[in-house]
Amino acid sequence: MTNSSNHNDNSANRRGFLHQSVLGTAVAGMTIASNSHVTAQTLADAGEPEITQTVDVLVVGGGTAGHVAAIQAGRAGAKTLIVERNSQLGGTTTTGGVAFPGLFDAWGKQVIAGIGWELVKESVELDGGTLPNFAKVPQRHWQNQVYTNQFLYAILAEQKCAEAGVEIAYYEFPQTVTETDDGWQVDCVGFGTRRRVQCKQIIDCTGGAEVVGMVGLPRLREEERQPGSYLFMLGKEHEPGRNQINRLYVHGADSTNSRTATEANLTGRKAILERVRQKKQRLMHMQPETGFRETYRIEGETVITVNDYTSGRVFDDAISYAFYPVDLHTKSGVRPKPLKRGTVPTIALSALIPKGSRNIIVAGRCVSSDRLANSGLRVQASCMGMGQAAGVAASLAAKAGSTPLEVPLPEIHAMLREHGQIIPGKA
Fold this sequence. Notes:
Blueprint: H1 2-32, E1 50-60, H2 66-75, E2 80-84, E3 105-106, E4 109-110, H3 114-126, H4 150-163, E5 167-170, E6 172-180, E7 183-190, E8 193-204, H5 210-214, E9 219-220, E10 228-234, E11 246-250, H6 258-279, E12 283-286, E13 297-298, H7 306-311, E14 318-321, E15 329-330, E16 333-334, E17 346-348, E18 360-362, H8 371-377, H9 380-400, H10 409-418
Parallel strand pairs: 1-2, 1-8, 2-5, 8-18
Antiparallel strand pairs: 3-4, 6-7, 7-8, 9-13, 10-11, 10-12, 14-17, 15-16
């Protein structure tokens, strides 16, 4: 009887505690519960672990170049899928936190526009921010970088993908890539998902040309790499779209694979924790991962050299401008080497084409270039321009049943102009 009585008393006590907890939660909920609601769409195949689909263009990597490439391909009428291993679009601008992209202007005029600029401009306007005056040549190049709200940018990019009919697959990445008679079969893996994609064209926007490497095409890299940057804020609030974040160099940062990227992130976070303890200041903001500057580049049909870059060579197949100092970061810091007044480099379509390839094109910092040229080409506005050109070339190639390098250049230029891009021209 004693055991039974104790059991009943304990049960009553538990019921009373739960009753009070529920009441307490209900009261607290008046102040902490969500005051708005949305409902996610129910996916017809959500319970199926295996998905098979056919698209015209597969974009791998939703970073600086990738989301622009996907939006452009979608707007051109291509059925487009973008696969991104992280949880949002924008790459360096959003996940990396370098939310002050540039450079869209050179020597008093805008030289890069198009979809990337559309996104930057709209995110600044929606945030009530300020755009630089491109008619004024700044004393320092960074003064015309555009302060952008990284959070708004990411969701605007998703909206524009939706409007262009682009499907987004987060938390997935290719495991195998196999050439087929009319394109590629790409098997992607995410948690709980295996996706087989049949596509006519691939745009590799992974930063390190990872798909190019998977299919056995040549890539270039040096033993030494520029340091990555881990962005954070101590002691005062970070105001997105208004100020820059503190930067910590992570030397040896390498985005070659998940293991090297993990090591870079752990190293950066450990150093930030030590700094918090030393300075005894609050950690107010920290980006989720290291921003990487350099890994692999493709060996393309054209290799852009530093002489091509600093002389402002206008390639016969130029599809976009680029503008930034030669900007090689080392253990002792960085000393940008400004371009001579009036010089505006260009990017060749053939520098986006892996040598000897068909039905694959790259965009972003993996552009075919030597190391010094790449230190200027890798910045956001230039990568956005490459992404838009790749989206045009891939979509036109898919429609014609050809490959990007075989698409007539006047057709590429015409579509780029139609979608707001500025095309290099010879004097």
